[in-house]
Design goal:
The structure holds 2 protein chains of 2 kinds.
Chain A: H1 7-43, H2 59-68, H3 80-97, H4 125-146, H5 150-181, H6 186-193, H7 207-220, H8 232-235, H9 245-270, H10 283-307, H11 313-340, H12 345-371, E1 373-374, E2 380-381, H13 393-396, H14 405-418
Antiparallel strand pairs in A: 1-2
Helix pairs in contact in A: 1-2, 1-9, 1-10, 3-4, 3-9, 4-5, 5-7, 5-11, 7-9, 7-11, 9-10, 11-12
Chain B: H1 5-28, H2 35-38, H3 57-74, H4 77-111
The chains are: A mainly alpha, B mainly alpha.
Chain lengths: 423, 118
């Protein structure tokens, strides 16, 4: 930005751009809820909301009006001030994080102006996103804690533990890209990936870093299959239990905007942001390119939710600390070696791919072992955690050492028919 | 490059938006509280005693581990940014020493069972 820009122009331009950005984000949030319901319904063989307007396109509007006119309840046991401020924290943090994301090329390349399509280009852009999105945990923890409800408290604690567990892997996975880019400014990171810069999207140098980032990001925004904080079967709605109406909407808003933010970061750092093999020279087109890339990641989030079952809590923590974190460290070391020794990007990319293949092979091997155990007689046994007759074994004095799972079931049914075992 | 003013303006606008929504929802909705409505949601069952608002110490341990790891990772960022053009091999050696120390601590807490959840 040229130093000749008067401060008042900067302020006006920033306010206008921020307002437009907030409106865009809220519109995307509203339509994401509708698209998500339609897509999940289609995947599950249902129709989804299709009554309000053409294809149900007015559904978000109807929802918003309904939410606005709902009765607002402040539970008698709640700490009122914290209970009211917590959703505001969540949504402010979610919106602020987006301020440094460049959504398109500057209008006249080479001539920066205050109207370029990003709110602020600070030289610690990525650090801003990371630090601000760490604050998101406050909104959730304070909301759950101040509600005075067991479900809320448990949900918010789980959420806090989950978010901080995956944030380490997330930060480390991004450091690999930083080594290639050599800058923290989001705009410069994108410029590095255009043809004028290094000419590659960093995904080709960082396949492993990208995979770690995307897994950690899904956990970071509490989406399925990592949506334990709001596991409705065990915790009703987790930290959201005592919230209703627009206060509840604020939390939903924060969740979806966080989704958009992590998708934008993935796009900017790994998929070249608004660049597309030179097409980005037309500024209008660069925004479309960015939107398409982000939309792909948003669809991925919906797809994951409709496909994968929720992961168990102890496994969630183990995945974060004992699987992703060492892999992220490995990725950082490999990348640092490649960058420091001046090796070309494809060496780093090939090593990353090799590590991914090796990890997948080992995981597949081990998952076979946990699914079936081979006994001494060569029969396939179910692992102890799945065996059906285990609990009644000791008092009957029976041993099922060598028998197959099917035989075990048959024997148990026979015992039940004899009346020797009461269910 | 690097004027942070626009970003703080955006934070202010976002805060304004959040407060507006909270004000709107306080004005628009009906207000007919009853003791049942104000009771904590327990799936229809009467609450026996109020929750203690205390939490298992296990979460505190996770929090402490997070501080140890995340702060060190953020302190890695300046090195990562400067690695390509300025630090090169020296930076690589520093980074390896850094990670060896980090991994010793990591293996220690792993062996102590800090990552196992019941």
């Amino acid at each position: 930005m040229p130093d000749t820009t008067p401060t008042w122009l900067l302020v006006v331009a920033s306010l206008v751009k921020s307002a437009i950005l907030i409106v865009i984000l809220l519109t995307i949030f509203a339509y994401m809820t509708w698209i998500e319901r339609r897509v999940v319904a289609r995947i599950q063989g249902r129709l989804g909301p299709n009554r309000a307007g053409p294809f149900g396109a007015l559904q978000p509007l109807a929802d918003a009006i309904k939410m606005a006119f709902k009765e607002q309840i402040i539970p008698a046991q709640a700490y009122k001030a914290i209970y009211l401020i917590a959703p505001v924290i969540s949504v402010v943090v979610a919106l602020s994080a987006f301020a440094v994301v460049p959504i398109g090329n500057s209008w006249t390349p080479g001539h920066p102006s205050v109207w370029d399509p990003w709110v602020g280009d600070i030289n610690v852009g990525l650090l801003w996103i990371l630090s601000i999105s760490s604050l998101a945990v406050y909104g959730i923890v304070l909301g759950g804690w101040s509600s005075g409800n067991r479900y809320s408290l448990l949900g918010s604690l789980r959420s806090a533990a989950q978010m901080i567990s995956y944030e380490t892997s997330l930060g480390l996975a991004l450091s690999g890209t930083l080594m290639w880019a050599g800058t923290l400014s989001m705009v410069s990171i994108v410029r590095q990936q255009t043809l004028q810069g290094q000419g590659i999207w960093f995904i080709v140098a960082q396949p492993l870093g990208f995979l770690i980032y995307i897994i950690a990001a899904v956990a970071e925004v509490n989406r399925a299959p990592f949506d334990l904080p709001e596991a409705e079967q065990e915790l009703t709605a987790g930290y959201l239990t005592e919230y209703s109406g627009l206060r509840w909407s604020l939390y939903q808003m924060a969740e979806y905007i966080n989704m958009i933010t992590v998708s934008s970061v993935a796009t900017t750092l790994f998929f070249g942001g608004w660049s597309f093999f030179g097409l980005e020279r037309i500024p209008g087109l660069s925004i479309v390119i960015f939107a398409v890339k982000v939309a792909f990641f948003l669809f991925l989030f919906i797809w994951l939710r409709a496909t994968l079952p929720r992961i168990r809590y102890d496994r969630l923590m183990r995945l974060g600390w004992q699987f992703l974190l060492p892999l992220a460290v490995l990725n950082a070391v490999v990348t640092a070696a490649c960058v420091a020794l001046g090796l070309p990007w494809w060496v780093n990319g090939l090593i990353g791919l090799a590590i991914i293949v090796a990890v997948l092979a080992i995981t597949w091997q081990r998952s076979r072992q946990t699914r079936f155990a081979i006994s001494k007689t060569g029969a396939e046994l179910l692992p102890p955690s799945v065996r059906l007759v285990k609990s009644i074994e000791p008092e009957l004095g029976l041993v099922n050492g060598g028998e197959t799972a099917v035989a075990g079931v048959e024997r148990q049914q026979a015992l039940l028919q004899d009346g020797r075992v009461q269910v | 490059m690097g004027d942070p003013l626009p970003i703080f303006l955006m934070v202010a606008l976002a805060l304004l938006f959040g407060l507006l929504v909270m004000a709107a929802t306080a004005i628009l909705g009906p207000k007919k509280p009853t003791p049942e409505k104000l009771a904590p949601y327990e799936c229809g069952i009467q609450e026996i005693q109020a929750p203690k608002r205390r939490f298992p110490v296990k979460y505190l341990l996770t929090g402490m581990l997070f501080i140890a790891f995340d702060i060190e990772i953020v302190s890695l960022y300046p090195l990562a940014v400067l690695l390509k053009d300025q630090l090169k091999t020296l930076g690589l050696i520093e980074l390896l020493i850094f990670f060896v120390i980090l991994m010793i601590g990591y293996i220690y807490v792993w062996r102590k069972g800090a990552f196992t959840w019941e």
